[in-house]
Structure formats: C-alpha cells, structure tokens
Amino acid sequence: MAAALTVLGLLWLMLGEPRVQVSGPLKPGDTYDAIKIALAVVAGVGGVVALVVAYRRQHLSEATDLREYDKALIERFGAAAEQLGADQPAVRMAGAYAMARLADEWPQERQMCIDVLCGYLRMPHAPDPPTDDQALASWQREREVRVTVLGLIAAHLRNGAPASWQGYDLDFTGAVLDEADFRGARFTGGDVLFVKTLFAGHGTDQIIFDEADFAEGAHVYFRLAEFRSGTVRFNRATFSGGWVTFDSAHFTGARVNFRDAAFTRGEVPFEGAEFSDGTVDFTGAIFTGTTVNFGEHHLPSIYRTAPPARFSGGTVDLSQVADFSHPPRFGLQVMPSGLRLPSGTSISDLA
Predict the structure, then answer these.
(1) I need a labelling partner for 160 at 20 to 30 A (CA). Which of 74, 129, 135, 344 fits?
(2) Backbone angles phi, psi at 127, to 5 degrees
(3) Pairing of strands 315-317, 274-281
(4) What is the DSSP string of 50-62?
C-alpha cells in the first residue's frame, strides 16, 4: 500500500499536480485533468504490480541460490566424510583438509564438521608401533593422518586463525595421542574432553600445550586420562580462569611438565589422581590465584566426596616454584613419598 501511494504521488507531481473542479459545470480543462489523473492511476497501479513482480522474482531467485548453496555444502560434507573413511592414507588426509575447509566456510554447521574430525581421532589406534615391518608402515601412515587432524584443530584454536574454532566443543574421549602440538592454543569456552585419553609418546614425540591459555569459560577435562610415556608439556601455559581437571587421571610413566606455568585464576583439581610412575614438574611455576587441589573434596551438589590424590611411586616436584603465594591444597598430614615441596614448606602448610 505504501509503495502504491508513493508511486501515485510521484506521478501526480510529474503531471503538474492536476486538479479537478469539485462543483459546477465541467470545463474542458477539468476533463483534461481528469484524464491525466486516470492515466496516473493506471500507471501507478502498473508500477506497483511491476515492483511486486520484480521483488517476488528476486526473492525466489535468492531462495533458489540459497538452496543450491546449501546443497553444495551438504555434498561437500558427504565427500569429505567419505574421504576420511577411505582405505588410502593420502585420501584420508585430503578428507581432513576438506572437512576443515568446510568448517571454515559453513559456520552454521561448524560444530558438526569439528565433531567429525574429533570422531576420526577417537577411532581405535594402537598406542605402540608394531614389530612387523608391513604393519609398522601402515601404523606410521595412519599416525601421520592423525597428527594432521590434530594440527588442523590446533591451528584453529590460536589467535589470528582465519576462522576461529575457539569456544567450540572438542571431544577426544578415549583417543590415543602420541604427538600433538597445541602450542599457543586458547581454550575460551565449550567442553574440551580428553576423558580417558591415552597420552603415549615415543622417543622425542611429545604432546605440547606450551603457551596455551586456559581462559575464563573454558572447561577442559583430563579426567581418567592416562599419561603413560613420552613428554606432555604445559610449559608457560596460563591457567587464567577456566576449569581444567585432572581428577582421577593416571600418571603412570610420562613426564608432565608445567615449567613456568602461571596459575592465576580458575580451578585445576587433581582429586583422585594416581601418581605411580613418571614425574610432574612445576619448576618455575607461579601459584597466585588458581585453586589447585590434590586433596579430598566434598561435592555437596551431588552428595559425593572426591578422594585425595594417591602417591605410590611417581614424583610431583614443586620444590622449584617461582611463586607459592597461593599454593595447591593437599589436605594431608603426612608427606607422601614422591612429593617435593619448596624449602621451608611442610605438608601441614598445604592443608
């Protein structure tokens, strides 16, 4: 209606504001003005019809283009997923790149694409290389595909990534990781699950979280994870407000380094963790605000008590920390074997 009135008004102005005598006999000029008005009305109605038809045509064209675009994205998703399931490692690797590219270009379904990549890593994979030459070659090729997938995910968690995946859920539950570089990643939200993940590096192969930032809003679970061998590094990592839990994790042989890490805010519980071998090294770390808890903890919301960490052979080295103004809690009266504290600090000080 508004469009019709606008068109009629413009035509009336273009025709010189014609007027019709409202009383008395009609003059020849009045007839002429009436004809002009009638023509203006016809032209106005035609213009409105043309506008409506053009709008509908454009709307239908845009809807068709959108459907075609969505169809193309769905087809690309299917093709990438099929590549990830291929027999040839090179094809699987190409599928990983294709799925990551699709996640960048399809924000509405980015989480679904990320879920597929994480799902690939959760597929069974032997933690140790086989002795048979042919089986070893196959194991190494599959390992390269997995390292590529992890690299793609980590690259999208760093600041400056063309398309950021920060804040999305990442599920590595039960995965076997023997090499991954999360250096400089920022965990800012979502649930990042390393639940029951096996960390089993070989030789110089390492899992690296150096300079990573576990920021406010992050929920990172290393619950029930096993740190079996190799080195897992959190050197210079910042725990600045998130919730990063190692509760009930098993430290059975790996070297886990928190060298120069900064624990400034948030919570890092180690309740129920078992230290039976290996070393957890906090050299140079600063504890200025994060609640780090190795002790028993009552969870009133679910009426359960989380047991304290168990020390049965591993080493937790806090002897060379840089700042101990907000030390971890242990809730123990007797110094357990394997726990090293700064000079002058007793276990009772950390109750």
Answers:
(1) 74
(2) -70, -25
(3) parallel
(4) HHHHHHHHHHHHH
Calpha distance 214→239 (Å, rounded): 5
Q: Are strands 180-181 and 206-208 parallel, antiparallel or unpaired?
A: parallel
Q: What tokens were used for 258?
A: 């928190």
Token duo for residue 49:
């019809």
Helices (H) and strands (E) in the chain, counts: 5, 22
Which of the four pLDDT bands, split at 50, 70 and 90, describes residue 17? Answer: low
Alpha-carbon distance of 267 to 190, in angstroms, equals: 16
Asked if the model's pLDDT at residue 322 lies above 90, the reply is yes
Q: Write down the residue that tokens 């300079």 correspond to.
A: 211
In this structure, are residues 336 and 342 in contact, taking their beta carbons and an 8 Å threshold?
no
Q: Which two tokens stand for residue 203?
A: 């030789």
Closest CA to 13 of 40, 34, 39: 40
Q: Which two tokens stand for residue 93?
A: 């690797």
CA distances from 188 to 167, 288, 298, 313 (A): 5, 20, 27, 35
User: What is this structure's pTM?
Assistant: 0.81
